[in-house]
Design a protein that fits this description.
Elements lengths: L2 E5 L13 E4 H4 L4 H16 L6 E6 L5 H14 L4 E9 L2 H10 L4 E5 L11 E7 L8 H11 L4 E5 L10 E5 L2 E6 L3 H10 L2 H9 L4 E4 L5 H12 L7 E2 L20 H8 L6 E5 L6 E5 L2 E2 L2 H10 L13 E5 L5 H9 L2 E5 L7 H5 L5 E4 L3 E4 L7 H15 L3 H12 L1 E12 L1 H18 L3 E2 L6 E8 L2 E2 L6 E2 L4 E5 L4 E6 L7 E11 L9 H16 L1 H5 L6 E2 L1
Parallel strand pairs: 3-4, 3-5, 4-9, 10-11, 10-12, 15-16, 15-17
Antiparallel strand pairs: 1-7, 2-6, 5-6, 8-9, 12-13, 13-14, 17-18, 19-26, 19-27, 20-21, 21-24, 22-23, 24-25, 25-26
Helix pairs in contact: 2-3, 2-5, 7-13, 10-11
Bound molecules: alpha-D-glucose-1-phosphate-6-vanadate and cobalt (II) ion.
Length: 550
């Protein structure tokens, strides 16, 4: 075994997006592409302090190219003097499990291999992300430094050691580095058992409560099977599509009503179980479904917050709630009622890390099916599902009853996101630029027709100042806020790999319980029309309809 220095030249465009570097598998397969980015990570870590002898955590969602990437990263870690790498068996670790293991084993950080909800397989997407010692996604100052290194690289260092057996638990050496293959589930399952009332959930299943968890052939299957069927005693077959597949069975591993259509059909039909749930490619997202009711993720965050003390891990109450800017304001109403702070951050979990570390927030959430808490520094799909199970067990209420009661108490925030995927990037950028140009003149204007008009209170491009380190993030999404709190938000996705994806977010508040059963799209129709009028979205993108509505 020797450590080699291999000459390389920079690849353009290795700038991490909302959640790491995501590209087509074919792009990652170019010689040196993965190596360059990993070298940039090690150079950044080296500049920040010492990686020598430290521990890193490594794992991915099992998608195509996962195993190859892990072998490469292990040989590069050895060449950079890393002391030990903890890698999940079979190369598998969900994103929340990586966060959990980093924290539990006091590691320097971790590398997560995933493109999350993006499709996998040889023609699909791949991704890589660095997490810091708090277990969370690296903040912008680190991802910026990584990107800067990718632009000037001339070589990378790698051991010429042969491949490691990733399927056997135990320790192996590469050069002076120890590779410890760990069980992917056990640390995480232990953490969950400490947060939730497993006895009460076990009793719920014993009373005949029925559930379906759809693993979407992605990484959360093994976790859900071990915990929900194994530890909580749900009948075998409760967790379906539990085997991680390299191409996720050809589907989008994205837990929303469009991509988890089988689960929605089951929950809408005569044989619906009491409770349905699904998780995404890397296990950090969740969808909660009752009979004929898919719970909006923004509502799920608000409901978890309002009922936090139902779970033993949150018995003492919560310190605050943080939500991404486009997420509905349902959580704000709960925070106000509880007398705790509510923080509004840019899109992406990395912005929650400081708030959680400083003890300012206990719960965090995003409209994109992401919910989590201070227990780790990533959003956590299985955690959210266990929270709901705990809540159902503690209250004896169904999902529908819990949601209805919440709306009756706090009012309902009708909410929807319209995605225009893979549109022309030039057209999308021009649309956003024009929209930004219009913002100063929008405030005070009345928009919309007849009785469905809205007066604009605020129109801006969201800027966030982190209350802990005062770092400033600009251009985080155009928002048009009406005098009644209704909102239109537009931003471009930072996770797509083809062209640009425009996301249009719509929100309207309704206090009157007699009007809580409207169809969401109808309830939002006046705002949808205003968004079109202001942005010219359809003409700009050449699309008559969004590609996905959630
Ligand atoms: C999307 C979501 C965002 C989420 C991010 C990563 O980002 O909107 O809320 O944090 O994906 O989620 P964007 O930039 O495409 O809108 V995951 O589950 O991909 O790690
Ligand atoms: Co994800």
């Amino acid at each position: 075994m020797t450590i080699q220095t291999i000459a390389t030249t920079p690849f353009a465009g290795q700038r991490p997006g909302t959640s790491g570097l995501r590209k087509k598998v074919t792009e990652f397969q170019q010689p040196g592409y993965l190596e360059n980015f990993v070298e940039a990570i090690f150079l950044t870590l080296g500049a920040l302090g010492n990686v020598q002898g430290r521990t890193l955590v490594l794992g991915g969602d099992g998608r195509y190219f996962n195993r190859d990437a892990i072998q490469t990263i292990l040989r590069m870690a050895a060449a950079h003097g890393v002391g030990r790498v903890l890698v999940g068996r079979g190369g598998i670790l969900s994103t929340p499990a990586v966060s959990c293991v980093i924290r539990k084993r006091a590691a320097l950080g971790g590398i997560v291999l995933s493109a999350s909800h993006n499709p996998g397989g040889p023609d699909g997407d791949f991704g890589i992300k660095y997490n810091i010692d708090n277990g969370g996604p690296a903040p912008e100052k680190i991802t910026d430094a990584i990107y800067e290194h990718t632009k000037t690289l001339a070589s990378y260092r790698i051991s010429d050691a042969g491949p490691v057996d990733l399927d056997r638990i135990g320790s192996i050496r590469i050069e002076d580095m120890e590779v410890e293959v760990i069980d992917a589930v056990s640390d995480y399952a232990e953490l969950m058992a400490g947060l939730f009332d497993f006895d009460a959930i076990r009793a719920l299943f014993q009373r005949g409560f029925t559930m379906r968890f759809d693993g979407m052939h992605a990484v959360s299957g093994p976790y859900a099977k071990a915990i929900i069927e194994g530890m909580l005693g749900a009948p075998a077959g409760t967790v379906v599509n539990a085997e991680p597949l390299e191409d996720f069975g050809g589907h989008h591993p994205d837990p929303n009503p469009v991509n988890a259509a089988d689960l929605i059909a089951l929950m809408d039909g005569p044989d619906a179980p009491d409770f349905g749930a699904a998780s995404d490619g890397d296990g950090d997202r969740n969808m909660i479904v009752g009979r004929k009711l898919a719970v909006s993720p923004s509502d799920s965050l608000a409901i978890i917050a309002a009922n936090a003390t139902a779970a033993p891990g949150y018995r003492d109450g919560i310190k605050g709630i943080a939500r991404s800017m486009p997420t509905s304001q349902a959580a704000d109403r709960v925070a106000a009622a509880l007398g705790v702070s509510c923080f509004e951050t840019p899109t992406g979990w990395k912005y929650f890390g400081n708030l959680l570390d400083a003890g300012l927030a206990t719960l965090c959430g995003e409209e994109s099916y992401g919910t989590g808490s201070m227990h780790i520094r990533e959003k956590d799909g299985v955690w959210a599902v266990l929270f709901w199970l705990n809540l159902i067990a503690a209250t004896g209420k169904s999902v529908n009853e819990i949601v209805q009661a919440h709306w009756a108490r706090f009012g309902r925030n009708y909410y929807s996101r319209h995605d225009y995927e893979a549109v022309d990037a030039g057209a999308a950028n021009a649309m956003m630029d024009d929209l930004r140009g219009k913002l100063p003149s929008l405030a005070g204007q009345t928009l919309g027709e007849g009785e469905n008009n809205y007066r604009v209170q605020l129109a801006d491009d969201f800027t966030y100042t982190d209350p802990v380190d005062n770092s400033v993030s600009t251009r985080q999404g155009v928002r048009i806020v009406m005098t009644d709190g209704s909102r239109i938000v537009l931003r471009l996705s930072g996770t797509g790999t083809e062209g640009a994806t425009v996301r249009l977010y719509l929100e309207r508040y309704e206090a009157d319980p007699a009007r809580h059963d409207l169809d969401t799209q109808q309830a939002l129709a006046p705002l949808i029309a205003i968004a079109e009028q202001v942005s010219g979205l359809k003409a700009r993108t050449g699309r008559e309809q969004p590609s996905v509505i959630t």
